[in-house]
Amino acid sequence: MLKHVLKSTLLKWRANAFNGTLTFGRSVMTRPTVTLNGTSTTFRHMAQSGSSLKRNMHSSAILRQAEAAVKKQPAKNLLNSSKTVGYWLVGTSGLVFGIVVLGGLTRLTESGLSITEWKPVTGTIPPLNEKEWLEEFARYKNSPEFQQLNSHIDLDEFKFIFFMEWVHRLWGRAIGAVFVLPAVYFAVAKKASPRVNRRVFSLACLLGFQGFIGWWMVKSGLDQEQLDERKSKPTVSQYRLTTHLSVAFLLYLGMLWTGIEVLKEAKWVRNPTKALSEFTKLDNPALKPLRRTSLGLLALTFVTAMSGGLVAGLDAGLIYNTFPHMGDNWLPSQRELFDETYARKEDTGDLFWRNLLENPTTVQLNHRILATTTFFSILGLHMWVNRRKHILPKNAVKSMHTMMGVVSLQVTLGIFTLLYLVPIPLASLHQAGAIALLTNALVFASQLRKPRVPMRILVSGLSTKVVQKPNSSILVEAARSAK
Ligand code: HEM
């Protein structure tokens, strides 16, 4: 088994070494060193520490190339990140989950347009006395939403909608702090690998960008000119709402994916023998199509969720409140689905896509079609997995079962949200269900991922008797990093 792992690793090296680079997993690196929490280990060191590695590698040309590369560039690459980094990423993704649900509640209680200004720093402090409240209320009274929809509300009602939006924005700022400050610490303290640091940096940029998107979205509901152009009542643009939702979901998935990866690698390092048997299962070529399908499923669930964002943005859940029929028939008429009033070009060249994205009837039908496709794809995959569970890692089988349950619940929630004309608790649960389903699809896909090549090397080295000597620096450092 070990031989098999090492052989496949060496084959990969050989294939790439002759092109002058070494491939580590999916990223091509020119530094063939393994450093664990700051201590550098070259392949020669590993070869000296582990007799089987030594036997396989010592004579090879790859080793010489590796040594030459090390001389040229200092060894900086951490192999894996500390477990704390993994917990932090998963924890922060939980905060993003929370803000998505809160954002949904803000929309459903129609509170999102209550704060008419964007003050990134001073906006943290709400009105503190009666005078400040009256000033804030006066600003809201100038907004299209108050003038056209909410002119009946009093100061106490205004305080409620203000509070919802204020907490939403405050939560966003808190996520920024909880993400960025520890990220800097983990990078400086070398607790995160450069690979994780790069991802964290991209996620931090996306997080900052999300703040701007939030305000860009709110602006579309405050600006009368934009509302006139869209011929809309005072609500935010469905495009901007869906963009905001999609970035939130991407942030969530990015944090969770990276966090899970870090924790999984730490677990492998802690228990290399068990890890090796897991690797053997994951190396089974029969899993290749399933691995691709799992990523496809994640993408399909994401697209379905985005189509749900359009339904929410257009209040398209308030029409055709029947299921599975839409009204008296299975489908609305073609004239209604592709209504010319939605086309803005004189030659109606934009008729098709505008109806797909702007006509509530068509948008609702799309969501039904995508949701049904997602449901049956998961059902099909569930049946496939059930027949071949012996070749899959146990956890992957378990998460497939959970996914079947979650998608059934999600579809049921969606149907009841529609039948009961979008009551707030059901709609909010349906939104949370979408994130739960995405989480499940992501966990399933991550459980089928093959280990990165440096992980294979480390785990293989750790599992050999010689490397398990207490004075082996690989073992000591790897164990420390996995604590
Ligand atoms: C895989 C299954 C499904 C997923 C992943 C999904 C996802 C979503 C998402 C993310 C939203 C946006 C929520 C928000 O931003 O507030 C949404 C809205 C909605 N979905 Fe689904 N959905 C699914 C199935 C269904 C089904 C089967 C129906 C009913 C036929 C349905 C009906 C609705 C309705 C009516 C809304 C609008 C709710 C509102 O205005 O807040 N969904 N969906």
UniProtKB/TrEMBL annotation:
Keywords of the record: Heme biosynthesis, Iron, Membrane, Metal-binding, Oxidoreductase, Transmembrane, Transmembrane helix
One CC-aspect GO term: mitochondrial matrix
GO molecular function per UniProt: 2 iron, 2 sulfur cluster binding; heme A synthase activity; metal ion binding; oxidoreductase activity, acting on NAD(P)H, heme protein as acceptor
Metal-binding keyword on record: yes
Chief place of localization: membrane
Pathway it works in: Porphyrin-containing compound metabolism; heme A biosynthesis; heme A from heme O: step 1/1
Cofactor(s) named in the record: heme b
InterPro entries linked to this entry: COX15/CtaA_fam (IPR003780), HemeA_Synthase_type2 (IPR023754)
Subcellular location, record wording: Membrane
Transmembrane portions of the chain: 85-105, 170-188, 200-218, 238-260, 297-320, 365-385, 406-423, 429-448
Recorded catalytic activity of this chain's protein: Fe(II)-heme o + 2 A + H2O = Fe(II)-heme a + 2 AH2
GO BP of this protein: heme A biosynthetic process
Lipid bilayer topology: Multi-pass membrane protein
HAMAP family: HemeA_synth_type2
Name of the protein in its database record: LADA_0A05072g1_1
Organism: Lachancea dasiensis
